[in-house]
């Protein structure tokens, strides 16, 4: 039915890349991936894989079957892939609708090959660009004064702004020229590893790649194409078309993801370049790729750890009005391998965490979308705003475009477990139902509208009345939403700043009073608590003291009794031992008395003799002294 949006499940394609020579010599070919038909594939767990070990323990299976919208085996060419996957979305884009392509898979599975390709086999991106230029040929808008604005809008540029645009573009192209000369030399040396930076030169020779017929009903309509190229690394957005690169001491400037006021996220200050030919597009891609790998080298990271997004915006112009703006984004996702596999630490761990976080959130969003759609009773929260990646593409998942996913896998036995993980993720993605608009959406109209419905941009300028209703102050204050204040004209901005300053002062005062109150309350409560615990402690000590005193006294009494008992027992024992009959005692006594008498007599005799001896001794001493004195007189020296 015309005007009614179409519904279909998300297209999820599988691309299986061929083995490399090294992989074959490393015996990676163990029949892990078996393509049954154009839509079904079987995965057989190889020996030694975690999946096989689990299945041997009776947990899980060693064989998994998956189905896809279409499967492209190793023998399929880039052209066949394009024709059967992206081409229909490319026509949608040329017809004013939004399109998004994700390439998903582990590192080295062929994601970049699919999106960008090689010199001989250009990927999806050069093919879409080529077809677009072929389509708009003869209907190109020559001026550079109509530029994409916010997420879905366009704005007129004044002559000065146009000048700036031209010089920014010229600066990029000048630097690409230099690179091209250097690459000419490098190409001879490293032809294989530089594939993605070299394809532009070859594409130019084999163009046209895709034949998209000119718009029959275009009439006097004109088209202009603008492109941007950026990457999301560690949840930070970096512009790959900004010539100023980071140095080791200086960090790369990251860009903010803002809300355009209509719920659409966009990258603020992202550089959009107007391109007129496929050659120009190729140069930009080359410039961005160089920027990406240079930044990665400087930061000691691998470019496969970031999500790179190439976005094209096509503006259809009728007279002086922009009829619609359509967007085509190709997103080369970071390798999906999990943290434990790569064994990352410190910065690397953080990096892996963020990459996994973005992919994890993407997975959560897809799962929540699927669950909400399969069970109408369910209305789970979809965490689009929890990562930059999903925030940016929320609109496409919510009916403002069509998303599809190309899942890339290799067939290597050593990466089987990760490949299985990728397949399980895609199986969920395949069940997501999308509401696809059958005509360019109203929200894609050239003018941004305020909350009262008035267009924000009128005759290329900003309507200040409409603007007032565009961003409420609450929204301006809401950092989470990151509303873009630079949308406001200068006088409005001054008013907003003034009112915000007053609000801020009042808020600070209120906060200060509140803080003092809270501090006092907390202080009182703490003091009370300390006093209570102090009291409790002294009570406990007192009780303990009393109980010890009592115990001591008891013990003392116990010992006293024991000693008394012991003394009595000892006395009784001694009494028994020392008992002598009376007549024996008397006889003994008499014996003792006689003995005493004898000893007295002896003693008296002894005393007498001792006195004599003493007198004799004294006499002898006197004689010695006298002799000494006389001797001294004779020998005075
Ligand atoms: N279908 C294919 N046919 C032939 N060669 C392929 C194919 N797919 C990938 N390759 C080759 O395999 C290698 C790895 O591919 P690619 O660099 O695209 O992987 P990736 O998934 O983008 O890796 P990373 O995540 O590290 O960027 C490249 O040398 C590429 O040329």
From TrEMBL:
Keywords: ATP-binding, Coiled coil, Cytoplasm, Cytoskeleton, Microtubule, Motor protein, Nucleotide-binding, Phosphoprotein. GO terms for molecular function: ATP binding; microtubule binding; plus-end-directed microtubule motor activity. Gene3D superfamilies: Kinesin motor domain. Its main location: cytoplasm. GO terms for cellular component: mitotic spindle; nucleus; spindle microtubule. Residues 531-565 form a coiled coil. ATP binds at residues 105-112. The keyword Nucleotide-binding applies. The keyword Nucleotide-binding applies. Pfam families: Kinesin (PF00225). GO terms for biological process: microtubule-based movement; mitotic spindle assembly; spindle elongation. It is found in: Cytoplasm, Cytoskeleton, Spindle. Residues 9-432 form the Kinesin motor domain. PANTHER family: KINESIN FAMILY MEMBER 20B (PTHR47970:SF29), KINESIN-LIKE PROTEIN KIF11 (PTHR47970). Belongs to the TRAFAC class myosin-kinesin ATPase superfamily. Kinesin family. This is Kinesin-like protein. The lineage of its organism: Eukaryota, Metazoa, Chordata, Craniata, Vertebrata. The gene is zgc:56231.
């Amino acid at each position: 039915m015309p005007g009614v949006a179409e519904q279909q499940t998300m297209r999820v394609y599988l691309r299986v890349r061929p083995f490399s020579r090294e992989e074959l010599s490393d015996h990676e070919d163990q029949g892990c991936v078996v393509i049954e038909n154009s839509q079904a594939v079987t995965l057989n767990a190889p020996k030694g894989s975690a999946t096989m070990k689990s299945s041997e323990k009776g947990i899980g299976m060693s064989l998994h079957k998956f189905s896809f919208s279409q499967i492209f085996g190793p023998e399929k060419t880039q052209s066949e892939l394009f024709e059967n996957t992206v081409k229909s979305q490319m026509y949608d884009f040329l017809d004013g609708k939004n399109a998004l392509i994700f390439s998903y898979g582990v590192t080295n599975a062929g994601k970049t090959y699919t999106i960008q390709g090689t010199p001989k086999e250009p990927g999806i991106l050069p093919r879409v660009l080529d077809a677009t230029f072929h389509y708009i040929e003869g209907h190109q808008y020559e001026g550079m004064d109509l530029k994409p604005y916010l997420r879905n809008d366009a704005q007129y540029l004044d002559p000065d702004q146009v000048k700036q645009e031209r010089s920014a573009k010229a600066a990029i192209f000048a630097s690409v020229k230099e690179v091209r000369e250097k690459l000419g030399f490098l190409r001879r040396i490293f032809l294989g590893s530089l594939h993605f930076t070299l394809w532009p030169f070859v594409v130019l020779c084999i163009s046209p790649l895709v034949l998209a017929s000119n718009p029959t009903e275009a009439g006097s309509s004109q088209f202009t194409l603008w492109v941007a190229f950026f990457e999301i690394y560690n949840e930070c957005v970096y512009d790959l078309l900004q010539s100023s690169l980071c140095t080791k001491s200086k960090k790369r400037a990251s860009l903010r993801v803002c809300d355009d006021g209509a719920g659409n996220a966009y990258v603020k200050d992202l550089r959009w370049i107007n391109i007129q030919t496929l050659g120009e597009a190729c140069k930009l891609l080359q410039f961005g790729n160089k920027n990406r790998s240079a930044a990665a080298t400087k930061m000691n990271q691998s470019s496969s750890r970031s999500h790179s997004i190439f976005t094209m915006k096509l503006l259809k112009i009728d007279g002086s009005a922009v009829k619609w703006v359509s967007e085509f984004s190709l997103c080369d996702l970071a390798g999906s391998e999990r943290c434990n596999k790569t064994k990352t630490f410190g910065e690397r761990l953080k990096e892996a965490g963020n990459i996994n976080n973005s992919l994890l959130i993407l997975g959560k969003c897809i799962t929540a979308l699927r669950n909400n759609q399969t069970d109408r009773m369910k209305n789970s929260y979809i965490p689009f705003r929890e990562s930059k990646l999903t925030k940016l593409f929320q609109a496409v998942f919510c009916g403002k475009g069509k998303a599809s996913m190309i899942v890339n896998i290799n067939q290597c036995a050593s990466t089987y477990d990760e490949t299985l993980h990728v397949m399980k993720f895609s199986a969920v993605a395949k069940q997501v139902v999308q509401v696809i608009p059958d005509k360019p959406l109203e929200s894609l109209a050239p003018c941004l509208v305020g909350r009262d419905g008035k267009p924000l941009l009128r005759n290329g300028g900003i309507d200040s009345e409409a603007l007032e209703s565009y961003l409420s102050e609450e929204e301006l204050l809401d950092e989470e939403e990151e509303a873009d204040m630079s949308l406001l004209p200068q006088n409005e901005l001054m008013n907003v700043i003034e009112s915000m300053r007053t609000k801020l002062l009042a808020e600070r005062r209120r906060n200060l009073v509140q803080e003092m109150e809270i501090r006092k309350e907390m202080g009182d409560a703490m003091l009370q608590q300390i006093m209570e615990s102090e009291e409790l402690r002294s009570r406990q000590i007192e009780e303990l003291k009393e109980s010890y005193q009592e115990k001591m006294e008891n013990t003392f009494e116990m010992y006293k009794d024991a000693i008394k008992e012991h003394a009595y027992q000892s006395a009784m024992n001694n009494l028994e031992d020392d008992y002598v009959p009376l007549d024996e005692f008397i006889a003994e006594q008499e014996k003792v008395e006689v003995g005493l008498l004898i000893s007295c007599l002896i003693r008296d005799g002894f005393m007498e003799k001792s006195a004599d001896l003493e007198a004799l001794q004294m006499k002898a001493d006197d004689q010695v002294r006298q002799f000494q004195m006389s001797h001294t007189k004779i020998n005075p020296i």
